[in-house]
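RECORD TYPE: protein structure
NAME: UBX domain-containing protein
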Amino acid sequence: DTLNSSGIQPKATLSVRRAPIPLVKLDSKNSNHSDDEQSVMEIDDDDNTGFDEASFTSKREPLIPDRCTNESAGLENFIRIFPKRFSASGPILYIGSLESAIQGSLHSPIKHRRPLAIYLHHDDSICANVFCSQVLCSDTIVEYLANNYVLWAWDLTFDSNRIKLIELLKSHVGTTCALRVQSMNKESFPLILIITRHRGNMELINIIEGNTTPDEVLNNLIQSYETFDEQLRRDEVEETLRETRENLKRQQEEEYKASLAADVAKQKQRMEDEKKVKEQEHAEENQKKQRLAMQKECQAKLTAEPLDSDKDITTLKIRLPDNQGILMRRFRIKDTLQTLFDYLTSEGRMFGEYKLLSIHPRRDLTALNKSDTLEKLKLYPQEQLILEAL
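PREDICTED:
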């Protein structure tokens, strides 16, 4: 018969068994062999059971080696061995830890978020080869997974890797998911777990078992994605509202901080202004005291004003600035220019705050020698002077 007429599918998984050796019975009359030789030739069928499908599977290179502690290394081995086993590259896997896969799929910004699919393989499951060759090598399913899911994988064939997976699920997905996988029997494998996240909690929303047909697998993936997408839309609305609330709260906090900073700045400025005013008032008060002390000192130094009838006197008229009036006093011609300045100080006109000018000739008396007498300066018998403020 040809392969076409045999009914074998275009893609099929075949197993090889050793054909049983028939029991040969020898006639004692015609045999030249001894009894011992005859007993060797009597082979029981039970001796052929050692080379069955399980022993064939055990000799294949595993998708993930026994006692694999590095998830990335295990997945790199997975994608290296898978094409050798099933003659196709298979699905596109996330190479990295389960925790990283969760971060990259379910914790991404909402516009880039995807559900997480976890493929769990078991070589000793009767469905393993068929599922891999017909489901994981299906172009339609591979493309749909690549476009809509983040796919992570693990091989539970060895107990060490099964224990590690259960620990990973407990740590990163949740105890409920871990117990669910742990309770499933070997014949349910392979499995595809569909994981989503709602309000910060990881959720196992679907388990696709190994006995599911390719069409059913695709439908399950589509339905699971639609469930995820509906929840994603609700999450997007909630996240938008939350961001709006947070932005409003942040804006209010910033405005409060700005207002508080402005109040603090105003208070600081007010305190500085008050300090300056007090310092200025204190300085002015000290200046007043100093001026008053100088006035009193100069008043004490001045001799009594001469009488109009006294000899050798001069009368000085001093015109004040800003129409403040005229000061007039008699001095002795032997009085010095310093005596004139002392008189002005006693009247509250401090030396250094003014210029004292004579008219004929025009001179700045404050620039002259203070020990010169009025007589020497020819400021007699009378003179009109001008006081200019500096």
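COMMENT: The longest helix spans residues 214-301.
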